[in-house]
Amino acid sequence: MTPPEPIVSLRDLTRRYVMGNQPIAALDGLTLDIPAGQFLGIVGRSGSGKSTLLNLLGGLDSPTGGTIRVGGMDLAGAGSDTLAQYRSRKVGFIFQQFNLVPSMTALQNVALPLVFAGVPHAERRTRALELLGRVGLAARSGHRPAELSGGEQQRVAIARALVNSPAILLADEPTGNLDSTSAAAIADLLRQAHRAGQTIILVTHDRAMAESLCSRTVELRDGRLIADSPAPGSAA
Amino acid sequence: MRLADLFRIALGNLLRQKLQAVLTVMGVLVGTAAIVLMVSLGVGLQKQTIELFNEVDFLTTVRVLPQKRSKSLMTFGRPLGPATRKLDDTVIAEIRALPGVLTAYPAVNVFTRLTIERTVEGKKKPLIGGSVEYVGLPQAGIVPLYRNALVAGGFWDGETPAERCIVVPADLLAEMNLAPPLPGKEAPGETPAGRGDPRWNAVLGMEVRFQTEVTVATGKEPAEGEEEAPDPPAASDEDDGEMEKTVTKKVIRRFRIVGIYDSTDIGMPWAPAVFVPLEQGLELARMRTARQNWVEGGYQAIVVKARDASQTEGIRRALDAQGYGTLTVQDIVQVIGSVFDVLKAVLGAVASIGLFVAFFGIANTMLMAILERTREIGVMKALGARNAHVRRLFVVEAAAIGVLGGTAGVVTGWGLGAAFNRIARGIVAGQGGPENISLFSVTPALALAAAGFAVLVAIAAGLYPAWRAARLHPVDALRSL
Ligand SMILES: Nc1ncnc2c1ncn2[C@@H]1O[C@H](COP(=O)(O)OP(=O)(O)OP(=O)(O)O)[C@@H](O)[C@H]1O
Ligand SMILES: [Mg+2]
Q: For ligand 1, what atom is nearest to the CA of residue A54?
């Protein structure tokens, strides 16, 4: 039995910044395959390049070297419209700061990715309500972010990230701003999504959280991969 | 992204900073209202002016010229080039035979100030009044409109009476304090004089003095009636091979006032007609225009009177087809229209300064909005918004400012104009002027153009901010506060 084509395939991926005269390699020749359905944890100390990697995976940024393929699509040379379309169809983002649109209700926030995808109003509403129900906030659909707790806001954000059925879910420190109870609820939701077959890539400082949630954890340091456990090929 | 969503989100964004939005919209409102007010003043004045030409006397008159009229705006419809058709009595006879023609006769075409001579202590003293046009009339040209306008005396009998006679407008006499005002035009405390009031009789019999200068070659006897010494020699004729001396002589003709008429509905208000017998008028014209562009032996113009206004255009077309130049009140209205078009453009341009200022207000508001919403723009991009989506959101938001301000501005400008009209009517009516004048007139086209211009300005102001917003790098935008 041949292993299935990985959903994410990185080869020698490099992202350099030039500050003044001094180049900084936020990612330095990273090579990594991520099979579909995996729950990958990315750990590493501050400044090691975790967010940089996530931004590249999400098509928010472009590499300065190497290749990055997600779902068979080459992101390295893609233009801004192609990347926007990629984000619209293939990716769901969860941020540390929740990043809900403050002027919109929970329902409108969840439906927003479908607005940019051109989905008709009625269909958007049904789908957004369904997702809000899944994160246990159906009753709060008419509330604005300012009327929700941090944990509730992040649950809305998870609903929003999943509303377009993305190929990969990207979460950058999703529990970084939350108390332990709320963090546990978020972890639960991620676990549920993973069980349903969702590919998830989670960036976290919290090694314990990574180990309890993820099927695989990689560690970055100075933009390089320094640990990968369990090693690829071993059972997930 | 669907159009309905685009508008819904953009409008929602605009209403997030309500005070800011209201202030920016106010800028557009003031600018648009200024344009509407100023241009509607131009439109109103144009309508008032054109109204003056809506008189039977004008609407039934075609002037026939010996040359084709220019269609160019720059020459204001004046004839161009040399005379091509000789206008003589044969032509007049032909024109009289055309269907719909009441009468036709040569035009005198002399404009001057009305001068009336009074005898004070045995000496003749001239009193100079307003501008008039000398109109020469054959008996057939004394239409019922003119006869019905008489308030004292009458027209002369026969085509060429032995004595020079003249019919003068009552208003000018009142202005010169020679006669009482007509009913409706009296100042407070004055008693107006109607038809047959004996006070008119003091004027009947007074003499109107017409004075001009003619250039004659020395040695030749000038026509009868010259007075006083000649002025210093004037320029000599240059195309004449031999040097022939010429002198300028003052010539005076005196006309006895036989009739007084109410000029309200007749002729041009700024130069009402004084009527004289045709031949006597033509004599004045020949003296005045001796060196002008007459076709040898022809008249300068022919006045054609239609039986009624509906036949005027048909007559003019028939004459056009025969190669004459023709002039009707429609041409004058057209020229006036084009003059007012220029005036309206100038007024509109001056008033546009308001929208020019509003342009910067909108641009500023939009740039501030981008600063406030930078992170949100990053979020939208992360959620799949294309650059074009972001750009459109901001352009539509700016356009919405234009739509709101433009609409409110049109309504405000219209309301202010209506208020000014009321005030103006009060003042004009108090002075015995016409009722229902509209100094400010807002046409649907003006309202649409002003609102449309406001929207265009707003969109233009939003273009650069929108472009900036669309161009934001998603990662940088997400990292901002
Ligand atoms: N826009 C940028 N310009 C210059 N350098 C940058 C930029 N973005 C990131 N870097 C640098 O790249 C390196 C990696 O940054 P990154 O944000 O990926 O780290 P991280 O692992 O996410 O850290 P943290 O855990 O603190 O979030 C850092 O040294 C950072 O200073
Ligand atoms: Mg980070």
A: 18
